Amino acid sequence: MRKLLFALPFISGYACADIQVSGILDIAYEVAESGGETTERVTGAGLSANRVQFRLQERLTEDLSFLGVYEAMYRPHSDDDIGQREAFAQLISQKYGTISIGRQDTPSASAYGYADPLFGNEYSLVNNIGVFYAPWREDRSLMYISPRIEGFQFRGMATQGERDGSRDGRVYSLSLDYWSDSPWYFSIAFDRKYQRNLWDSDTMEQSTDIYLTSVYAMGNTEFTAILHRYSGYYAYAPWVDFDSSGNDLQLGIRHDFGNRHNLAVSLIHKDDDNNRELSDATGINLGYIYNYSESIDLYGVYGYVHHSTDSEVRYPLSWNLDSPLPDENPQGVQLGFRLKF
Asked: What kind of membrane protein is this, topologically (predicted)?
């Protein structure tokens, strides 16, 4: 692992046989309260996931091109935590659209990921409270992306799921995005997931998620909003499952001061219909980024999640910390740097 990290600066921007290598190295000092204890450590991926990307692009005809992407995740403080982030192949036609196959984000994730003020940082309220256990990056998927027509673009995805002939693990995701020359961006997305009940393998459960997303740009400032409706059965095998429904609303702002200083604020409120396995919750995520150079950013991030009642299933501040206790409201601070190569 250390040899890989040592080699990264030397392969930055390197291309061989049209294979481009790039990535992100993100290291942070963190103090966080979660799982009944205070954690103080040097960690990775505070602002962005640590990754190395290999990208191959080739033009086949005047209209048709091929794109292959493989991304590996890594954590600088660990010698064994390396995993696949994305791996997909695309046939791209400017006239007819794009066919994409592999491990990739759902159409819904592309929309709410753009509206997340800090684009999915480790303390992201969108990922950790809004999406939670809903589908977002899926294996063995097939997706179609239409050309953009009058500002509208359609995305549709279906996954194979488990290879047992059932619907277990299958995900269907659809989105309709609207881009225009105006300051507005809009999206509506629908996700459906099927999975077996953790305690009764003969029972096939399902969940439904609907996202309404909007971004408004005004000069160097962007205002974001995500309204999310969830219902059904959600599980993270083999530890957690619950059946519930509710809504959450995320409001955010990101501002570029134009002199290397950037500020982002994200607020979310979750209103669970049942308020049994889950609790109503409110969260805040604050971020400051200083663009030291084109490739280096310095940052500070604060996150806090407040639950209205005690509950067995808690929303995490970060998936890399111990799960909060049933009566705990986690919070944390990260100070770090991000190197883009």
From this structure: Multi-pass membrane protein
Asked whether residue 2 is assigned to any structural domain, the reply reads no
Give residues with Cβ within 8 angstroms of 311, minimum separation 6.
Answer: 276, 277, 278, 279, 326
Amino acid at 154: F
Please give the distance of CA 135 from its chain centroid, rounded to a whole number. Answer: 10
Quote the distance between the C-alpha of residue 51 and its chain's center: 14
Q: Which residues of 219-237 are buried (b: 16+ CB within 10 A; e: fewer)?
A: eeebbbebbbebbbbbbee
Q: Which two tokens stand for residue 36?
A: 């009944």
| Residue range of the domain that includes 142 | 27-50+59-65+94-340
**Does residue 40 fall inside a structural domain?**
yes
Q: How many domains does the chain have?
A: 1
Residue with tokens 């800090």: 118
Tell me: the pLDDT tens digits for 80-101?
Answer: 567 789 999 999 999 999 999 9
Question: Tokens standing for 142?
Answer: 């097939």
pTM for the whole thing? 0.91
Task: Evaluate whether residue 18 is within a structural domain.
Answer: no
Q: Which CATH number characterizes residue 200's domain?
A: 2.40.160.10
Measured CA to CA in angstroms, residue 290 lies from 31, 195, 329 at distances of 20, 43, 29
